[in-house]
Amino acid sequence: MLFAVSYEQLQCQVPTAPASDATPMVCSFKCTATYQQLLQNCVAPGTRPVIVAPNVNPYDEFDEVIRDIKKDTLNPYDLSYTFASCSTVCNAASIMDPQDMQIIYYNQDFLNKIKINDASVQWAIRCIIAHEIGHQVLGHTLPANGTNISLPEKRKRERRADYFCGFVISYFPGATIDNALAGLETLNDGNYFPKTTQQEDAAEYPTLDNRMEAVRDGFNQARSGDINIALFRSIDSVAQILYNKYGSSQIFRVVDREISVNNFEGAKEIIEANLLKSGNSIYQNKLLQIRSDLQKKAVLTTSPAMLENIIKQSKKSNADPQRIKQLQLELKKNNAAVRE
Ligand SMILES: [Zn+2]
């Protein structure tokens, strides 16, 4: 596929000048516009302009996305967002203005330049809109949520907006995973950053792979009935619900999530709970390896009793003797520490 625009990655930007004591967020698709610039340059939306778009009318798509969410009887949100064109926005952005109006801006020129086949353009635009609605629904644009945003937190927000996008696209009858990925596919031009998980540590957004996984999860888990629109109000509990349901098949993903928000203790608990259940040497070794990597990131102590159980299970699972030896050494150290 050929794309005329590399519309790069979404990011939440902390504006340079706070509008009040709290700092409102600009959650966008790769933009340099600040909160103040948007307030100054983007006209408050009134009558909708007549759009002569080569492919798709974004206003129609916005209405369609909102309509589809509202059809869901479990929908708890009023979704009274204002959608407006503004050339200061490089692509699309969400803000809450000083009058508490929740606005989603988009750049018409940018949308016009997406040169994929017509149906994909339509899906790409729906995905961008759904991602931005996700930022609003998840409260990312609230002034109270705009201060001291760490990089892991920013990445988490982007993943959640992507997850929401996958969820929303699933509402469209006949929509496929590929349709849900159309927005991110347009970023897939070789220029996307971060490219690796190592680079991700210092980036405001996740790797494309991780973002696509979030979209797929949102889509699949909506279709399988694991989540519903109301659950986005308590999004923090969603990962746990899914973990409880899927257990080991989801564990690495859940653990990655916990690590990405620096919840090392939480990640360790999940890993150790699974180390006690495993009966497969490959899986056990993988868990032990992740546990060992985690220990390089944070000081995490495991009780001697828990370690003994993990050793027992690791032996039963025919785990790598070298890994078991490391656990025995750790147990020895922990026992010594307990005696001190
Ligand atoms: Zn975003």
What labels would you give this structure?
340 residues, alpha+beta, 5-stranded mixed sheet, 15 helices, binds zinc ion
Chain-wise SSE layout:
Layout: E1 10-13, E2 26-29, H1 35-41, H2 58-71, E3 82-85, E4 92-96, E5 102-106, H3 108-112, H4 118-137, H5 151-169, H6 177-180, H7 182-185, H8 197-200, H9 208-223, H10 235-246, H11 248-260, H12 264-275, H13 281-297, H14 304-316, H15 321-339
Parallel strand pairs: 3-5
Antiparallel strand pairs: 1-2, 2-4, 4-5
Bound molecules: zinc ion.
What does this molecule look like?
The structure is a single chain. With 340 residues, this protein is α+β, with helices and mostly antiparallel strands. The protein has two domains: 4-252, no CATH class; 263-340, no CATH class. The protein contains 15 helices and five strands. It has helices spanning 35-41, 58-71, 108-112, 118-137, 151-169, 177-180, 182-185, 197-200, 208-223, 235-246, 248-260, 264-275, 281-297, 304-316, 321-339; strands spanning 10-13, 26-29, 82-85, 92-96, 102-106. It has a five-stranded mixed β-sheet with strand order 1-2-4-5-3. It is elongated, with a radius of gyration of 23 Å. Zinc ion binds at residues 10, 12, 27, 131, 135, 158, 161.
